[in-house]
Amino acid sequence: MQPRKLGQMPAKAAPAAQEECKTEQREPRRAEAQAGQRVVCFMEAAHGVYVPCLAVVWCCTRVFVQAPSGRQRVHVLAALHATTQEIVTVQHLTDVTAETVWELLRVLAGASPAGPITIVRDNARYQQGALVQERAQNLGIELLYLPAYSPNLHLIERLWKGVKKPCLYGRSSPTSADFQAAIQQCIGQAPSDHLTELESLLTLKFQTFTAVPVLGEEAKVTSSAAEKQQQAHVSLFPKRKHAQKEVSAKAA
């Protein structure tokens, strides 16, 4: 036993549905993509709010950044190529709609070589309309929807987290136009400037939660002797608890 940081999982996720999607739908297409027989892209929108992202910096005195109101947003709909890590984006200042999705699908169809194309996406309303379904079918694009509450199966979720830190944390954007330009520049330069980080971050390995210990529930612990059932135990202050044990032992 040792101090460990808690992990998180989607509270409303269905682990069985995620496992089925991963093994029966995703794995065959992943194998085809790695063999060069299919193009697989992960599509999702990011909604950047024009507010400062605070960070820890080296300084002699505490430094402050001016904080805008946060009423302005930058909406970026992007598609991430599963094997080449190429990023294709469509950016809007208003909102992401079915027309935005159609625009990106058209770009992907024109940029991809002859062969089947699969777009992995979540269940956002603007991605499920009849317009998107019809035009994707006309372009010969397969739309593969993830189970509800499955960010752990969405590769582009890792991209957004990886891009946000070097792009926005500890930086000041005087205007919303500067904020928009910073996001677009960071996304555009990510495959070249952050190639090493992306290669380790965007691996085609996805975690599911069919057999993990959950705080407050019974957890299965496998030992060399047998499988035992025990209550998941968490110590929030392990060092302090250890010190108290030492003091009690000396007092005795």
UniProtKB/TrEMBL annotation:
Q: Where does the Tc1-like transposase DDE domain start and stop, copy by copy?
A: 65-178
Database matches in Gene3D superfamilies: Ribonuclease H-like superfamily/Ribonuclease H
Q: Return the annotated region ranges for Disordered.
A: 1-29, 232-252
Supply one GO molecular-function term: nucleic acid binding
Which regions are flagged for Basic and acidic residues bias?
19-29
Q: What is this protein called?
A: Tc1-like transposase DDE domain-containing protein
Native organism: Tectimicrobiota bacterium
